[in-house]
Amino acid sequence: MRKRILLVTLLVSVLGIVLLSVLFTDVFYRQSIEAVNGQLQIYMDVYAAERQGEPLTQEGAEAFAAELRGVRVTFLAADGTVLGDSEADAAAMEDHSGREEVAEALENGEGFAVRDSATLGYDSVYYCRTFEREGETYLVRLATQANSGFAIFVDALPTVLLLLAVDIFICLFVAWLATSFILRPVEKLTQEAATAAGKEVRTSYPELQPLAKMMNDMNAEIGSQLARMREDRSIEKLVLNSMEHGIVIFRSAEEIPLINRTARYLLGYEKNEPIACFSEDAEIAAVLAAGEPATLARRIGGRDYSFRFTFGEPANVLLITDMTDIMAAARSKNDFIANVTHEMNTPLTSIRGFAELIGAGAIPPEKLESVADTIIRQSDRLSHLIRSIINFSAIDSDDLPDYEVDLTEIVRELAVNFEPSLRQKSITFTLDAEEGVKVFSRRERLVEILNNLVSNGIRYNKEGGSLAVRLTGGAAPVLSVSDTGIGISKENQGRIFDRFYTVDRSHNGEGGGFGLGLATVKKLCQRAGWKLSVESEEGVGTTFSIQFCPKK
Ligand code: ADP
Questions:
Q1: Ligand 1 atom closest to 512 (CA)
Q2: How far does CA 81 lie from the centroid of its chain?
Q3: 8 Å CB contact between 152 and 27
Q4: Fewest CB within 10 angstroms: 115, 390, 443, 488, which?
């Protein structure tokens, strides 16, 4: 800004000096012409007073010119014929009636003209007057040379240049002072605004106060926008980093505008390093080269992930999703179907086999009764399996409301129900239940749990063994079912709660169940938030415990 002001000032002052010089030259030139004209008029008056009677010849002209020193004298007849000239041969000179000064004199009695001279730097000044001699009009013309305008300007040029230099210096100095004076407060204000960093910009100049206010308002607005942007960014960062999915926004293996924590961990990404698998994994490299959306499956640290690549503007995206649970669920669903099919197939094959034999008359009449018995047992087994599956699956959709159930009462009823089975295996049963222990649930769920635990305690017990059911009350009642049976190995203790898992598959169906009992107990406890545990020693016995923690 300062530069521009100085430049404009310089231009204006130079232009001013040049114009002034031209103007002065013109005035001076006019004045000098005026002066020369005045001089010639005086000479003409001298002629009129002293030389009117002299002959109008070449010699007469030369004599008068010699007296005037340097002034050219020309005598002319009224028709413009040159009668005598002090500097040229009159006879050779053309008719002068057309000359401006002559024509003017013939009309007004005197005439004046200025013309370019043959000599460089000079103009010719002519003054002409009419006279009368013996009734005849004749003209006398005096001419001399005066400096031309250009010559005057050239003469004055050194002075003009000196003046110009002084003027430039003064102008620049004054302009610099003035701009400093005007700009310093603005510069100070700008500097303060630039280094304000949240502080208020102040100025003591009232003219600049609106500007300072505007800067403060803008600073405040920018500040709050920046704070908002920072907050948005940290929220975005928080969201991205807390995502269990890995996300990478990339343009190439080296140019990665965004990568979240999960992706950094899964890809082993180091800051300012390229993503290694983008070049080392041939399949990924091929997807990147093709630039077409693709999904790849990868196994990292024993877990399954899907790598989904999408390509676009302004960047490409890699979304890494943990598929382990989804795949496990799919596997478990397939296993479940396979198990159900397998468990159903066994009784069905047996029923069908016997039915075919009966149909073919291949069973002797005395064996028919035992075959029919087998068919009935297999049918029971099938319906038991179907019931177990329905029970197990129904837990997920059981949204019936809970209510207070007297668990002591259920335990007592159960002991009565299981009496025949206990007696069959000569098992000593002890029940130690606190009175009126209440649990917030549904009766059928608690019956299901107790049925499974007690029936297992009998089924996997030894002949003449014992079975003890204990129930304590309090804020979190505890139920335990202990037997002195075959026990469960440490290895199997972790698996007995899986669906269709049975330690000894030969037990399946008849003696044992289908491996759905404990899975059902576990599912019911999980949904209610109860703690289920098992303690067991092979050959010694097993204790299943449930702590009925109240729902928060
Ligand atoms: P099942 O219907 O086969 O009994 P469960 O899910 O109830 O299925 O039990 C799974 C497996 O756990 C059983 O096959 C058995 O091997 C083992 N088990 C369960 N309860 C006991 C127990 N009280 N003593 C020893 N083993 C047991």
A1: 3
A2: 98
A3: no
A4: 390
Q: Give pLDDT tens digits for 13-38.
A: 889 888 988 898 899 999 999 999 99
Q: Does 449 score more than 80 pLDDT?
A: yes
**CA angle (425, 429, 434) in 5-degree steps:** 160
Helices 443-459 and 407-417: angle between axes, nearest 10 degrees: 40
Structure confidence at residue 141 (pLDDT): 94
- Measured by CA distance, the residue closest to atom 7 of ligand 1 is 517
What b-and-e string marks burial along 340-370, b requiring 16 or more CB atoms within 10 Å of the CB? beebbeebeebbeebeeeeeeeeeeeeeeee
Q: How many Cα atoms within 13 Å fall on the side-chain side of residue 175?
A: 19
Name every residue whose Cβ is closer than 8 Å to that of residue 468 and which is 6 or more positions away in sequence. Answer: 429, 430, 431, 432, 480, 481, 482, 483
Over residues 256-267, the mean pLDDT reads 93
Which position has the higher pLDDT, 506 or 169? 169
Structure tokens at 278: 């983008």
Name the token pair of 113: 């003209």
CB 412 within 8 Å of CB 452: no
Q: What is the pLDDT of residues 353-383, one digit of tens each?
A: 999 999 999 899 999 999 999 999 999 989 9
Contact yes or no for 488/534 (Cβ under 8 A):
yes
**Residue 121 contacts residue 97 (beta carbons within 8 Å):** no
Instruction: State residue 509's pLDDT score.
Output: 46
Nearest-CA residue for ligand 1 atom 12 is 496
Token look-up 């020309």 returns 74
Ligand 1 pocket test target in 342, 456, 500, 542 with most atoms within 8 Å of CB: 456
Mean pLDDT across the stretch 435-464? Answer: 95
Q: Whole-angstrom Cα distance, residue 130 to residue 117?
A: 24
pLDDT of 277: 93
Alpha-helix residue ranges (DSSP H) falling in 360-471: 368-394, 407-417, 419-424, 443-459
Contact indicator for 310, 320 with CB cutoff of 8 Å: no
The C-alpha atoms of residue 8 and residue 179 are separated, in whole angstroms, by 12
What pLDDT sits at residue 505?
61
**Residue 203 region by backbone torsions, left for phi larger than 0, else alpha for psi between -120 and 50, else beta:** beta
Please tell me the distance from the alpha carbon of residue 279 to that of residue 302, in angstroms, as a whole number.
22
